[in-house]
Amino acid sequence: MAFIDCHFYSDSLGVSASMYVILPQAAQNQIGLASAVYGVKHPTLYLLHGLSDDHTIWMRRTSIERYASKLGIAVVMPAVNRSFYTDMASGPKYWTFISEELPALARSFFPLAEDRELNYVAGLSMGGYGAMKLALSHPDRFAAAASLSGALDISDRALNFPDDFKLIYDDVSKIKGSGNDLFYLADQLSGSTRQSPMLYQCCGTEDFLYEDNIRFRDYCRELGMDLTYEEEPGEHEWGYWDRKIQNVLNWLPLPARP
């Protein structure tokens, strides 16, 4: 794999932004690392961070490079600060950045596939919310989305982070039934003719977000969405996420390599 620490200017944010990118490499003699590639353009996983983290965290806390290498997929890990992947009421437009600008820039910099069937998104905690928001808002762009211990009931979470949410949403009473509400997005998608992405969701039973996850799981099941759900004993911590990101990678609907 190739590892790139990428810094670039963002028009939507108005400042320089950062992302880590790992790219497949067809290495023949690298010791201890299995390598695979699909072709000229790589299947891509956008991997999102949580509230207290940044774009470096997946590389620091897991072996994501080693896990992705044998599958032959690229992984894009952007930084979005404490934005909840939203155009902030009192701050930068992080939803525009993550949903529109970042994919276009990443594809201009690196050989990343544009096809829906070769694009996926995943994240933990706040990033789990961001992953589901991206896939449910743009099902034409992502074949699959995964949430690890996601903050999926955002209107309920607003009570826990009042300072952040005031800056992000201004009036938190407007979250429910809006494009920031995953329950609303799931409902809108299920009632449309658009193809729904495959969804994966996991949460530890001792996680403080467990009840949020149960509510979202049950709602998606009621709508008949293609949801894979896993739970086991676990808390909101990296040992759990390091194990589960491996499950996510194995679950992704990657096409057969040529």
Strand content: 15-25%
Give the radius of gyration: 17 Å
Q: What is the element string, with H for helices and E for strands?
A: EEEHHEHEHEHHHEHEH
Tell me the distance between the termini: 19 Å
CATH superfamily: Alpha/Beta hydrolase fold, catalytic domain
Largest sheet: 8 strands, mixed
Q: Based on the coordinates given, report the CATH architecture.
A: 3-Layer(aba) Sandwich
CATH fold group:
Rossmann fold
Number of domains: 1
Number of E strands: 8
How helical, in percent, are the residues?
25-40%
Q: Low-confidence parts lasting 5 or more residues at pLDDT below 50?
A: none
Pfam families: Esterase
InterPro entries: AB_hydrolase_fold, Esterase-like, Mycobacterial_A85_antigen
Protein name: Esterase family protein
3D structure, described in words:
InterPro entries: AB_hydrolase_fold, Esterase-like, Mycobacterial_A85_antigen. This protein has 258 residues and is of the alpha/beta class. It has a single domain (2-249), classed as Alpha/Beta hydrolase fold, catalytic domain (Rossmann fold), CATH 3.40.50.1820. The protein is 34% helix and 20% strand. It has an eight-stranded mixed beta sheet with strand order 1-2-4-3-5-6-7-8, sandwiched between helices. β7 (198-204), α8 (210-223) and β8 (227-232) form a beta-alpha-beta unit. The protein is globular.
